[in-house]
UniProtKB/TrEMBL annotation:
<feature type="region of interest" description="Disordered">
    <location>
        <begin position="498"/>
        <end position="517"/>
    </location>
</feature>
<feature type="compositionally biased region" description="Low complexity">
    <location>
        <begin position="502"/>
        <end position="513"/>
    </location>
</feature>
<keyword id="KW-0132">Cell division</keyword>
<keyword id="KW-0206">Cytoskeleton</keyword>
<dbReference type="InterPro" id="IPR027417">
    <property type="entry name" value="P-loop_NTPase"/>
</dbReference>
<dbReference type="InterPro" id="IPR020850">
    <property type="entry name" value="GED_dom"/>
</dbReference>
<dbReference type="InterPro" id="IPR001401">
    <property type="entry name" value="Dynamin_GTPase"/>
</dbReference>
<comment type="subunit">
    <text>Forms homodimer and may homooligomerize and heterooligomerize to form the phragmoplastin complex. Binds to PHIP1.</text>
</comment>
<feature type="domain" description="Dynamin-type G">
    <location>
        <begin position="32"/>
        <end position="300"/>
    </location>
</feature>
<dbReference type="GO" id="GO:0051301">
    <property type="term" value="P:cell division"/>
</dbReference>
<comment type="similarity">
    <text>Belongs to the TRAFAC class dynamin-like GTPase superfamily. Dynamin/Fzo/YdjA family.</text>
</comment>
<keyword id="KW-0378">Hydrolase</keyword>
<dbReference type="GO" id="GO:0005525">
    <property type="term" value="F:GTP binding"/>
</dbReference>
<dbReference type="GO" id="GO:0003924">
    <property type="term" value="F:GTPase activity"/>
</dbReference>
<dbReference type="InterPro" id="IPR045063">
    <property type="entry name" value="Dynamin_N"/>
</dbReference>
<keyword id="KW-0963">Cytoplasm</keyword>
<dbReference type="GO" id="GO:0008017">
    <property type="term" value="F:microtubule binding"/>
</dbReference>
Length: 612
């Protein structure tokens, strides 16, 4: 069975580790928040600082008028076996403080570092650990004193700001509230009790502390409060007698102050019968005993939280990726696996598993036909241009039967127009493929942690696409050139066999050869060439997409990263490691997660090792 000291000490150690790792607050409930701690609440000048110093047995807190505590002080007390007292701050982890006057100065300096030498407050906590054989294992949080009015140098919102800060601590279900009220004021006006009643109406988390009993008016006492008649709590009220200002000025140590406090209660006619349940020493033991009870009650929920968080941290590590091995073989394997992951995503885009590949079909089905329709054949095959081309082709000797040279020049000139849409189709598909490479890299989860490798893959893929585009351009240009290099003779033979539509019935008019230079003659030539170009257009409309898919899309699916694989295989270990450089923020995130995971696993193992 775990002893009270060992169990609370365990919780204290876990809280300390949480503090070091920054596992303190944030979204959801952290392990730090799941473990019980004591929030010290009171109005200004209620004696909060004196109570804390009495519990610790050391004079270490800044003093003064107005708001002295301007940042939360998370005070973790660690009981040690023998030795001298010492203190450590989280912000100065390598420095051990044995002079507690220096601790007071460090608290003041660290407060000013965030708030400046003003009367502003900050919710950024100061973390202080004190190690002593004279303390109980305990975590106390000293909060700024509640106030009712803003003084000079403070914003008007200071009253609300302090209350919101204090409320954020005491409303947590695992927070034990130490509500401190001065005995020389009406308990009904106590700021601490008022706030505690709002966040803990049942009073099960609230301990009432009454200070300054020795400063009450003669003839009056606080028995109604201490015995629970004025305001009843589930836990007993505890009276405290603070050091007087004269004792503070004389540097009376806390051990002597504790002895003086015991004598006060033992010899007091009003409080003598309560003396065994009064004083700072009793308060520390009472809190420690209650903490033990709360911890035992919360162990199952704490274990559940730890297990849930371990699962979440493991899932997060899987999502952002585990650390990479340092040997070159493992690095090469990792790089190739990441490339294959990218290649799978890229092929899914092309094959329809992901959006994007349909844009290539859009180029073939919309862009190419639209470009072909816009070609200036009407202008090129106008009667005027046909007459000009035919006449120039005939030279000094007019054609005898059909203007074959004129036909060829008109056809070659028309076919040359197809090169523009053909190359535009190649470029459009190239642009789509480049965009799919970019999108695939962004959507490959495994690659997100390696910006250098992302850049290398993008460069290699785009270089390959450039090669595929060049080959595709040459291929579609060949398709166009092939149409010029050999004309389909059967097409023109069929035209020759068709009867002339314009029948000559007047024997006195000249025959067909006589009017070969008439408008009808040139119009017929233009019509014939236009029909032939239409046939060529239909052919290219089908063959250009086939060439583009064969040279670009097929090759991108088949061997997009082949050259990259060959280059990577020849690289030295240092260059492989450089390719797997990660985003520094991601590396920091992984390190932080790994440390938190180790903390939670260690906490679970330690809790499991106790027989609760």
């Amino acid at each position: 069975m775990a002893t009270m000291e060992s169990l609370i000490g365990l919780v204290n150690r876990i809280q300390r580790a949480c503090t070091v790792l920054g596992d303190y607050g944030g979204e959801g409930m952290s392990l730090w928040e799941a473990l019980p701690s004591v929030a010290v609440v009171g109005g200004q000048s209620s004696g909060k600082s004196s109570v804390l110093e009495s519990v610790v047995g050391r004079d270490f807190l800044p003093r003064g008028s107005g708001i002295v505590t301007r940042r939360p002080l998370v005070l973790q007390l660690h009981k040690i076996d023998g030795g001298s007292d010492y203190a450590e701050f989280l912000h100065a982890p390598r420095k051990k403080f044995t002079d507690f006057a220096s601790v007071r100065k460090e608290i003041a300096d660290e407060t000013d570092r965030i708030t400046g030498k003003s009367k502003q407050i900050s919710n950024v906590p100061i973390h202080l650990s004190i190690y002593s054989p004279n303390v109980v294992n305990l975590t106390l949080i000293d909060l700024p004193g509640l106030t009712k009015v803003a003084v000079e140098g403070q914003p008007e919102s200071i009253v609300e700001d302090i209350e919101n800060m204090v409320r954020s601590y005491v409303e947590k279900p695992n927070s034990i509230i130490l509500a401190i009220s001065p005995a020389n004021q009406d308990i009904a006006t106590s700021d601490a009790i008022k706030l505690a009643r709002e966040v803990d109406p049942s009073g099960e988390r609230t301990f009432g502390v009454l200070t300054k009993l020795d400063l009450m008016d003669k003839g009056t006492n606080a028995l109604d409060v201490l015995e629970g008649r004025s305001y009843r709590l589930q836990h007993p009220w505890v009276g405290i007698v603070n050091r007087s200002q004269a004792d503070i000025n004389k540097n009376v140590d806390m051990i002597a102050a504790r002895r003086k406090e015991r004598e006060y209660f033992e010899t007091s006619p009003e409080y003598g019968h309560l003396s065994s349940k009064m004083g700072a020493e009793y308060l520390a033991k009472l809190l420690s005993k209650h903490l033990e009870t709360v911890i035992r009650q919360r162990i199952p929920s704490i274990i559940a939280l730890i297990n849930k968080t371990i699962d979440e941290l493991n899932a997060e590590l899987d999502r952002i990726g585990r650390p990479i091995a340092v040997d070159s073989g493992a690095q090469l394997y990792t790089i190739l696996e990441l490339c294959r992951a990218f290649d799978r995503v890229f092929k899914e885009h092309l094959d329809g598993g992901r959006p994007g590949g349909d844009r290539i079909y859009g180029v073939f089905d919309h862009q190419l036909p639209a470009a072909l329709k816009k070609l200036p054949f009407d202008r090129h095959l106008s009667m005027k241009n046909v007459q000009k081309v035919v006449s120039e082709a005939d030279g000094y000797q007019p054609h005898l039967i059909a203007p074959e040279q004129g036909y060829r020049r008109l056809i070659d000139g028309s076919i040359s127009y197809f090169k523009g849409p053909a190359e535009a189709t190649v470029d459009a598909v190239h642009f789509v493929l480049k965009e799919l490479v970019r999108k695939s890299i962004a959507l490959t989860e495994e690659l997100k942690r390696f910006p250098t490798l992302q850049s290398d893959i993008a460069a290699a893929a785009n270089e390959a696409l450039e090669r595929f585009r060049d080959e595709s351009r040459r291929t579609v240009q060949r398709l166009v050139d092939m149409e010029s290099s050999y004309l389909t003779v059967e097409f023109f033979r069929k035209l020759h066999l068709e009867p002339e539509k314009n029948t000559n019935t007047n024997p006195n008019q000249p025959g067909p050869n006589a009017d070969r230079y008439n408008d009808n003659h040139f119009r017929r030539i233009g019509s014939n060439v236009s029909a032939y170009i239409g046939m060529v257009c239909d052919t290219l409309r089908n063959s250009i997409p086939k060439a583009v898919v064969y040279c670009q899309v097929r090759e991108a699916k088949r061997c997009l990263l082949n050259n990259f694989y060959a280059q990577v295989g020849r690289r030295e270990k240092e260059r492989l490691g450089a390719m797997l450089d990660e985003d520094p923020q991601l590396m920091e995130r992984r390190t932080a997660i790994a440390k938190r995971l180790e903390l939670y696993k260690s906490a679970r193992d330690e809790i499991d090792s106790y027989e609760i």
